[in-house]
Specification:
By secondary structure, this protein is mainly α. The chain has one domain. Helix content is 79%, strand content 0%. It contains ten helices and no strands. Helix 4 runs parallel beside helix 8 and helix 8 runs antiparallel to helix 9. The protein is elongated. It starts with a helix and ends with a helix.
């Protein structure tokens, strides 16, 4: 770390960005069961188990609604295939509620396998990290007192913006984790809708939404990889012939633009998945 306050300020901002990039990669490759030592997952399991009773109650309600809605009399139930269809729907919904945790874990494992395959085949995100060029550091240290005054303002604004983007980015990834927990905890309630023919769309939409949240990890991984390639191929150029303030302002602007690309991709990962799945 440099003794110069301006250089140290930029280095701290870049260090925050690099730390959050590394944390994102760790979060994406961590399963919900092992996140934070499994403490949160234990709470989710308890909530899921407690909601099974509500799920069973809704199961009977949705089943009765489906039966009374689909027939005006019980004569239709004299046909074995009609009664069998409702019975199979009821049993399938009952099994889904009973084994809701296993079902959600299985869906996550399938989608998580896609994420792990992408992450393993494409490597890490070392290219997404940012370092301060030595030319910038040398130019700042050579600047006089009066010339360094506008540099303070430039670096403060740039560092603040980079730090804010870092936290916005990591909050988006944490938000995905918490949505996974919420979907898993509440699973017995929407899964009970499969008992009724008219209400089954609720359960289908729930499953598609959960798969979408799981696949957001794949989009985030690809976003990091794309950003790494984009950042390495569009390294900000340094024009040492201009003033130090202009050079640093131009450099920070280009770095922030590159960072905005990644933040935008991560923030829009849910929208990308919704468009892909048609939800």
């Amino acid at each position: 770390m440099s003794d110069n306050w301006i250089v140290a300020n930029l280095e701290n901002a870049f260090a925050t960005w690099n730390d959050k990039i590394a944390e994102i990669w760790t979060l994406i490759t961590t399963s919900p069961q092992s996140f934070k030592g499994g403490t949160v997952w234990s709470v989710v399991e308890s909530i899921n188990g407690g909601l099974q009773a509500i799920g069973y109650g809704l199961l009977v309600l949705f089943f009765a609604m489906s039966v009374f809605k689909s027939t005006a009399s019980f004569r239709d139930f004299q046909r074995p295939e009609y009664a069998l269809k409702h019975f199979i729907r009821f049993v399938a919904a009952k099994v889904a509620i009973t084994y809701a945790m296993d079902l959600m874990v299985a869906l996550y494992s399938i989608c998580g396998g896609v994420v792990d395959q992408i992450a393993g085949s494409l490597g890490g995100v070392a290219g997404a990290s940012v370092t301060l060029p030595s030319a910038i550091e040398a130019a700042v240290e050579d600047a006089g007192f009066w010339a360094s005054i506008p540099l303070w303002l430039v670096t403060i604004l740039g560092s603040l913006f980079i730090t804010i983007m870092s936290f916005i980015m990591i909050m988006s990834v944490y938000g995905r984790f918490f949505r996974l927990y919420m979907y898993t905890a509440l699973a017995p309630v929407p899964l009970s809708s499969f008992a009724g023919e008219g209400t089954s769309e609720m359960g289908k939409h729930f499953v598609k939404s959960y798969v979408g949240v799981c696949l957001e990890g794949a989009v985030i991984v690809l976003a990091c990889i794309i950003f790494s390639a984009f950042s390495s191929s569009s390294t900000p150029t340094l024009d040492t012939s201009i003033t130090t303030v202009t050079m640093i302002w131009k450099y920070i602007g280009e770095v922030i633009f590159n960072m905005l690309v990644l933040v935008g991709l991560i923030k829009g990962s849910d929208r990308i998945i919704k468009e892909m799945l048609g939800t």
